[in-house]
Structure prediction request, 891 residues.
Amino acid sequence: MTGLAIRGLRRRFGGVAAVDGVDLDVPAGAVTALIGPNGAGKTTLFHCVTGLDRLDGGTVTLAGRDLTGLAPHARARAGLAWTFQRIELFAGLTVAENARVGAENRRGRPLVAGLLGLPDPRRATVGAAVGLVLERLGLAAVADVPAGTLPTGTMRLVELARALAAEPTALLLDEPASGLDDRQIVRLADVLRTLAADGLAVLLVEHDLRFIRAVADTAHLMIAGRVEASGRPDDVLATPLAHDVYAGED
Amino acid sequence: MFYAGLALNGLAIGCVAALAAVGLLATYRVTGVFNIAFGAIAVFCAYVMWQCVRVWGMPVGVAAVLVLGVVAPGIGLLLERVVYRPLRGSGASGLLVATLGVLVLHLGLIFLLWGGRSYVDAPAILPAGDVRLPGSLRLPYSTIVELCVVALIAGALTFLLTGTRVGLLVRAVVDDRDLAAASVPADRLAAGGWAFGSFLAGLASVLWAPIYHLDPYSLTLTVLETMGVAVLARLTSLPVAVGAALAVGIGQTELTALHPAARWQGLVDAFHTNLFVLVLFAALMVLPRLGIRDSGSVGAGLHRSGARRTSKPDLVQRLPLGTFSLVLGLPLFFDPADLRAALAVPALAVIFVSLVVATGYAGQISLGQAGYAGLGALFMAKLAAGGVPWLAALVLGPLLVAPIGWLTGYPTIRRQGLYLALTTFATAAVVARFVFAQPVFVGGLTVSRPPGFTDDHWFYVLELGGLGLALLLVRALHTGPLGRALVALRDSEPAAVSAGIDVRRLKVFVFACAAGLAGLGGALTASAAEAFNPTDFDPVQGLVWFAAVAVWGVDSAVGAVVGAAALVAVDVGTVVGVSGLLIGVGAVLLGWFPGGISAVVRRGGDWLVASQDSDREAGPARRLSPAGRELAARLRERGAG
Prediction:
């Protein structure tokens, strides 16, 4: 499989199984959504996949490469990119520099080389990747603006720009539409569809059902640490379980 | 019976440590602030007590009432109102710098008012004499009273905090002062907490002073070292802290009974006189975390708000290099005495710059730079003693410190905020006690200047060369991919990880660079003085340096250099204590001007540049925010279309 494959993933906190043997495929070229009520284990699963939390069992593979034992930064370098539920960016850097950090660290470089001021052979490709991403996300006009001074919605896009600048194989987004206005949500949906069309594997954790319907190819409903329903978003949202969870929404 | 006698002696030491630990913990639990300045406040109170009795002739009882009933609580109330109340909501680092400021301020006052002199005749309030126990053992009255005081305070406070409504309210205020303020008199409770905490500092000082002679640095450091037992209690359990203090005190005296082979005796002696330092160091290394709310790297108050701008140089960066060099070169035209004093500037500037690298650029608080500086000087002297030419030793010595920074930095990479600060301080304290204070390492050391640089003029030029090299290194750490990675690490560690940055490797690398730089500064300091003086690298001195750099701007290398020059100038041009007073005042007020003096200058420069730019810009767009300008540009595009 060319995308992200999660097999038998388990994570327990004391006696509680936050993630209980989840199997999930995030195929390349498609947008996959993970939905469910608060406390279902979506964010825990997200953290186990990225390596921010340890897992008690199971495997995570990306394009056939086993990531399970790797540190988070090594997973990032292996092609896994992610953004956070609570915005995390480099407030002391400009928008363009935020994206540059994502592009520059995709491959390790001896720290001493930086200290000695040796030229970075990837400089040109990094610049091109950053320019492309900023253009794609509509951030070119604020490229030189300090990221910490931007409105929340734009900050979310800067996070996404940082993730995309690394030219990842799979992209994990934790509530990416949170804080965005309608115009930005439409643009984000367009961007994600385009990225998927370009072959990227995209996994969303999201509560905005309209957004899910607009952008996702597949949805997985997670309840109490287990995936209880999978399929096209409309089909999954039509199940009785989803009705119970999302009663009154949408 | 011999060992029981030793245990009773150890009990007296343990009581002193328990009193300090209870004071630290009590202050922390009723105010939420880990008051590193506790020892300095205590020492200040002890000096006031000495002044009242020995100079003004007051009866000991009256002086004790004045110190414990007025001076000590008054200090607490003043600190709460002027320093800590404005800082509520600040991160742990903002509070840490404020407490360091309070520490430096009190030391400055002691130097200013008493010249920093040591006194051995501190008045005693406890009766002399002892109780005879079976087996010819004796237990001093003072130990009995101290034990009772410790037990009473620990017991009463534990009951108050866990078994009463007042305790519940205090815990609510400590947890979230703003939230608690909606239903309880939070400010009054916090003020009461500070008054009580300072009272305990005063009480501790009144009981200690007759045991230890009064000395600003050594007594403050002694109290700081007892933080180990508070750390062992994870800053929560008063009974554990008391038990640990008594156990370590007894263990310390029991070690005196050990008489191993002669070659090991020095090491055993070092252990038994410094067991509290070891406990502090070991506890910080072993315990995974403290019971403190402590997150992030360097919080509000240390860094300037807004962004590090890489596209437009600010006013400080616009300062022509030539002008800067010219100013630093001015001492070459000073008279010999002033030039000799100015030799301290480049060396201190290099040490300050090392703090900028660790704390300013990477967000890793380091209170241990004094230790690395001293090691740089020591290695240089040892290499020279081993036949290495002095100039080569001056370069190689600091280079050898870098791997030590790497090794000591490794255990700290998972620590943040206050925990990291304490760990780095403990490292410096261990180095000071087990290396700089041991004749086997520093006895008979001679330090000379490299041939050709023995004259002050030429040595100053050599120092400027060292400073130039340090600034080049800093520039490399502040620009390009490495500089961006460091800012990323400082601003958001999770995001830095997600971007593929190996934050552990980067942190240790920065520690090694900063240690090497501090080592260079230390080597230059010793060379300038032509002597290795351990007091130059006292861990408490390191705290003063940290506060000074924070005041000048922890992320400004230029600010660090100017700060070093200003510190030396104030020390030379005024009486002793003034510099400490100024640094202390600056540090406690840092909440009012985030980012320090360099940020104020920078903001002024930005304002000037912005005024000029806006005059050039046409139309109303000049008053728009970046987002507004983007919108205006889009509207113009739409209009054009």
